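Narrative of activities, Objective 1.

The group set out to show that a structural description can be obtained from nothing but a protein's sequence at a throughput compatible with the screening campaign. Below is one input-output pair from the validation batch, recorded exactly as produced.
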Amino acid sequence: MENDPVMPALEADSRQPIGRRLKALRKSRKLTLTRVAEMSGVSASTLSKIENAQVSPSFDIIKRICDGLDIAIEDMMGDAEPAPAPAMNGRKTTTLSGSGARFTCGQYDYKAHATELFRKGMVPLELHVRARSVEEFDHWSRHNGEEFVFVLSGEIEIHTELYAPFRLKQGESAYFDSSMAHIYLSVSAEDAHVLSVSYDPRPRQAPISAYMHAAARPVDESDMPPAQPRIAAQQR
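Output recorded for this entry:
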C-alpha cells in the first residue's frame, strides 16, 4: 500500500478541506490511521499526508477512502456534518450558477448537482465531453442502474459494449442500462455539453465516484479549463 498515487501538491487552501474532513470523520469514529489504511487500502503514510495538507489525493484515492469508510463522496467534500436521513418527505436543494462540486479527468469535466442531498435516488451530472476517440479511454464507465443523457450543446457519439455507436445532437437524448459499459465522445467542432442523470435503484446508493470515470478528481472552479472549439471528428 506504500505506492498510493497522489497528485502534485496544490495550494494549501484547496488541499485543506479534504484533509480536515478526513481527520474529523476518522476521529469521530475513533479510528486510527492504521485502521483506516486497513479499511481503505490506502497507506497510513498517505492518509497522514492528506490530513496534514501535504499532498492532494487523486480521485481514485478519495474513492477508496470513501468506500472504506462507507460514506458518499459528498461527505468528503465539505466541512459540514453529513445530513441525516430525512424524517419526512419534502427534501429540496438548488444548485445555482457557479456552484456545484467539480471534477475532471482527461476525457470529461464534471459538475455534480444537488450534492447537499445524501442517499438520493438520482445522480445529476453536467459534463463537458473532451474525448474525441475511443483510444483515449483505458476504462469505460459502468455502474448499477440506468442513465439518461441529454445534449445541451454540440454533438456526442455514445459507444456501448452491446450496441453500435450512435450520435445525439443538441436537444436529443438517450436512456440506457448503465451496467453496460459505455463512453461518450464529442463529434462536434466544440466540446459537447451534456446532462447525465443516473438512477440507482438500490436502497443504499453508491458514492458519486461510481458514476464518473475512474480517473476523475475533484478540482476548484478556477482549475477547470474552458471548453475549446475543436475540429469535428471524422466520420468513422
